[in-house]
């Protein structure tokens, strides 16, 4: 026979037992942290004083009690008074053979989906991203507070002290930028695949590079004008090319040349581990004449948080590689001092598919 107390404390989600008058009788350990209060201190407290549900739950709750049927409410905001409300699934059911006691289970949706995510991804690197994503979420709020406080402080300061508050504000901005990249990574949607004119993507990327981070570079185009449409998500592919151009521009000391080349290679096939093959005939190469990949990280540049730069995040190529693999494509790199080539191989769009703007 299983010990009831052990069963209760093993429940992986916040669980609350209430009496016939909706007063708390017992809560499990997870609920103690969820409500930020001990079971002892909550005994006898009306449950709806401690848990605010953004839905007409009380009616449904009493119906569940009167009819004895369990109640499932999905996607409601549950507030506990000590943190922003969380989207949760709430389950309520009557205690078997009880005197009207009810059990309430609260499953925060965010935590649930995050846990699910880290189950399905295997590599340590990907779970590092999951962790970082969660942290990013948690750090941004207090950081905004710190920045705000520093800005308030700076209103009555001498010039020397102003430098210090400026430093706080500036460094906080840098952290926010890093966190946003981590979140961007975590929020990446599966590609919305259409027929994509790769040259439009390359052109947009080239122009925005020249206007911004790549102003010091010469960018040479070498396109095969007969290239068919690729099957992909134009916005995501733009992000890929921008990240590659940015790295090429950052690798160059003062000036440098980047060559963007497109060509068709009929025979390029990716053989998967399950034996099936995928044809990836569209090739894009981005070549720079910088110093080449640093030796010590050469084999790991596509992993998150691997960077050879002092202020690098190491997320640019990780995002690139995620997007390309979501496209069923392939990316490779070949680098010696003076010549670094990133090559992307993509599938072509089915012949009857036309780009959204031409349809
Ligand atoms: N074109 C390139 N030339 C030389 N090194 C590169 C190039 N592209 C990437 N790298 C190296 O790979 C590292 C990882 O790149 P990335 O994932 O974009 O992160 P970050 O740019 O933030 O450092 C860079 O820090 C750099 O050392
Ligand atoms: Mg980068």
Which percent range fits the helix content? 40-55%
Please tell me the overall pLDDT.
86
Provide a count of the helices: 11
CATH topology of the largest domain: Heat Shock Protein 90
Tell me the name of the CATH class of the largest domain. Alpha Beta
Q: What's the domain count? A: 3
So, CATH architecture of the largest domain?
Answer: 2-Layer Sandwich
Q: Classify the secondary structure makeup into a structural class.
A: alpha+beta
The coarse silhouette is extended
How far do the termini sit from each other? 66 Å
Over all CA atoms, what is the radius of gyration?
27 Å
Main-sheet strand order equals 2-1-6-5-4-3
- Bound ligands, named by name, code or SMILES: adenosine-5'-diphosphate, magnesium ion
Strand content: 15-25%
The major sheet is characterized as:
6 strands, antiparallel
Count of β-strands: 15
- Provide the low-confidence segments as ranges: 112-122
Q: CATH superfamily of the largest domain, please?
A: Histidine kinase-like ATPase, C-terminal domain
Order of helices and strands: HEEHHHEHEEEHHHEHEEHEEEEHEE
Give short descriptive properties of this protein:
359 residues; alpha+beta; Beta-Lactamase; Heat Shock Protein 90; 23% strand; extended; binds adenosine-5'-diphosphate; binds magnesium ion
Give the topology, please.
Elements: H1 4-10, E1 15-18, E2 24-27, H2 29-35, H3 39-42, H4 47-50, E3 52-53, H5 57-67, E4 71-79, E5 86-94, E6 102-108, H6 109-120, H7 124-153, H8 159-186, E7 194-196, H9 198-211, E8 217-222, E9 230-232, H10 234-251, E10 256-264, E11 269-271, E12 277-279, E13 282-288, H11 316-326, E14 330-336, E15 339-346
Parallel strand pairs: 8-10
Antiparallel strand pairs: 1-2, 1-6, 3-4, 4-5, 5-6, 7-9, 10-13, 11-12, 13-15, 14-15
Helix pairs in contact: 7-8, 9-10, 10-11
The structure holds adenosine-5'-diphosphate and magnesium ion.
Magnesium ion binds next to helix 10.
């Amino acid at each position: 026979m299983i010990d009831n107390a052990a069963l209760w404390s093993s429940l992986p989600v916040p669980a609350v037992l209430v009496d016939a008058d909706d007063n708390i009788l017992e809560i499990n350990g997870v609920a103690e942290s969820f409500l930020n209060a001990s079971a002892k201190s909550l005994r006898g407290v009306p449950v709806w004083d401690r848990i605010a549900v953004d839905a007409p739950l009380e009616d449904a709750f009493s119906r569940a009690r009167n009819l004895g049927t369990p109640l499932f409410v999905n996607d409601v905001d549950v507030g506990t008074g000590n943190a922003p409300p969380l989207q949760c699934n709430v389950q309520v059911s009557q205690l078997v053979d009880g005197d009207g006691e009810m059990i309430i289970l609260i499953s925060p949706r965010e935590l649930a989906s995050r846990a699910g995510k880290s189950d399905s991804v295997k590599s340590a690197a990907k779970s590092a991203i999951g962790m970082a994503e969660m942290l990013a979420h948690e750090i941004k709020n207090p950081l905004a507070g710190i920045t705000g406080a520093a800005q308030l402080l700076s209103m009555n300061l001498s010039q020397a002290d102003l430098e210090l508050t400026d430093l706080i504000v500036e460094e906080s901005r840098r952290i926010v930028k890093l966190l946003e990249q981590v979140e961007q990574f975590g929020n990446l949607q599966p590609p919305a695949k259409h027929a994509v004119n790769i040259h439009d993507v390359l052109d947009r990327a080239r122009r925005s590079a020249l206007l911004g981070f790549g102003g010091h570079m010469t960018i040479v185009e070498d396109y095969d004008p007969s290239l068919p449409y690729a099957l992909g998500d134009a916005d995501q592919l733009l992000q890929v090319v921008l990240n590659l151009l940015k790295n090429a521009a950052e690798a160059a000391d003062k000036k440098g040349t980047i060559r963007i080349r497109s060509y068709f290679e009929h025979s390029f096939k990716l053989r998967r581990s399950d034996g099936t093959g995928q044809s990836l005939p569209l090739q894009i190469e981005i070549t720079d004449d910088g110093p080449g990949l640093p030796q010590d990280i050469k084999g790991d540049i596509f992993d998150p948080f691997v960077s050879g730069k002092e202020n690098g995040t190491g997320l640019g190529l990780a995002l690139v590689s995620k997007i390309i693999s979501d496209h069923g494509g392939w990316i490779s790199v070949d680098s010696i001092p003076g010549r670094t080539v990133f090559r992307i191989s993509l599938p072509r769009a089915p012949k009857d598919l036309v780009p959204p703007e031409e349809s």
